[in-house]
Design a protein that fits this description.
The chain is α/β, with parallel strands linked by helices. It has one domain: Rossmann fold (3-Layer(aba) Sandwich). Helices cover about 40% and strands about 15% of the residues. It is built from 9 helices and 12 strands. Strands 2-1-3-4-5-10 form a 6-stranded parallel sheet, sandwiched between helices. A two-stranded parallel ribbon has the order 6-9. The protein is globular and about 55 Å long.
């Protein structure tokens, strides 16, 4: 199976490139070769690399900056996603598109299911919701995978930020009233491969098309995530700090974050027969990848 992944430097794109599975070939293409805002460049990349599935992992991810730069976010996450879907459809390919928990308001008491009403609270969420709708409109053979709290050994993310700050601080104040599921990028990559393969196995199966929630098992808060990072890092002789739980109101940001980012993955497990590991399992694997290994 040949995958063409939009974007080269993102966490999920890098994780996909790092997979080593029999019969799997992954190519990642980013700007200027493949630019989501340039529909022709997507078509040309597909013609050059001849994939079986297009994976749209590229995105405008500057959540706070999007509040004052919404046009740019919409160009990539909205119309750009639609461009990718249309190009895949023209080539007769399915598309796997990554979306986010930010399409929800975050005020539900329990985990969100795919049919829950969307109500993004900021520009980033609005742009990703626009992308979902355009992908569905422009390519009937689509799987939209909503994920959340992505981290890994590549790029910038919460885990790496915590470790960096712990090198110079004894205590870190971390938000404790937002709940969600930290999801390790390589686990997302494996989930994407499972989805893509099953879409190819039965291209006419309508139940394998649509929106699916794909996150790790369990949930925690940002403060809980930080505490687990520091606990394991300290055991390995790496950076660590005490965690002081705070409220969201004590750490204001330009963009509002969902208080509840939990996503119900029942439909994903049922349709694709795949389940991501518990969120806790990704932390030691990420520390290993960063060179913060167990003590000898």
């Amino acid at each position: 199976m040949r995958l063409l992944v939009t974007g080269r430097e993102g966490q999920v794109a890098q994780a996909l490139l790092g997979l080593d599975a029999p019969g799997l070939s992954v190519t990642a293409a980013g700007r200027p070769e493949l630019d989501l805002t340039d529909a022709a460049s997507i078509r040309e990349a597909i013609a050059l690399h001849r994939p079986d599935v297009l994976v749209n992992a590229a995105a405008y991810t500057a959540v706070d900056k999007a509040e004052t730069d919404e046009d740019a976010a919409q160009a990539v996450n909205g119309e750009g996603a639609g461009n990718a879907a249309a190009a895949a459809h023209a080539a007769g390919l399915p598309i796997v598109h990554l979306s986010t928990d930010y399409v929800f308001a975050g005020d539900k008491s329990g985990p969100y299911v795919e049919s829950d009403a969307t109500a993004p609270q900021g520009a980033y969420g609005r742009s990703k919701l626009a992308g979902e709708r355009l992908v569905a409109e422009r390519n009937p053979h689509h799987a939209i995978l909503r994920t959340a709290w992505v981290y890994g050994p590549y790029g910038a993310n919460f885990l790496k930020t915590m470790l960096r700050l712990a090198e110079t601080r004894d205590t870190l104040r971390v938000v404790a009233d937002q709940r969600g599921t930290p999801t390790y990028a390589p686990d997302i990559a494996n989930g994407i491969v499972a989805v893509a393969q099953r879409m190819l196995d039965r291209p006419d199966a309508s139940d394998r098309q649509g929106i699916f929630h794909m996150v790790a098992g369990g949930s925690t808060t940002w403060a809980g995530f930080a505490a687990e990072i520091f606990r394991l890092s300290a055991e390995r002789g790496g950076p660590s700090a005490a965690v002081e739980p705070i409220a969201t109101a004590d750490y204001p940001t330009p963009a509002r974050r969902p208080a509840n980012s939990r996503l119900d993955t029942s439909r994903f497990r049922s349709v694709f027969g795949h389940e991501l590991p518990a969120w806790e399992s990704g932390v030691p694997r990420c520390l290993d990848a960063l060179g913060i290994g167990p003590r000898a």
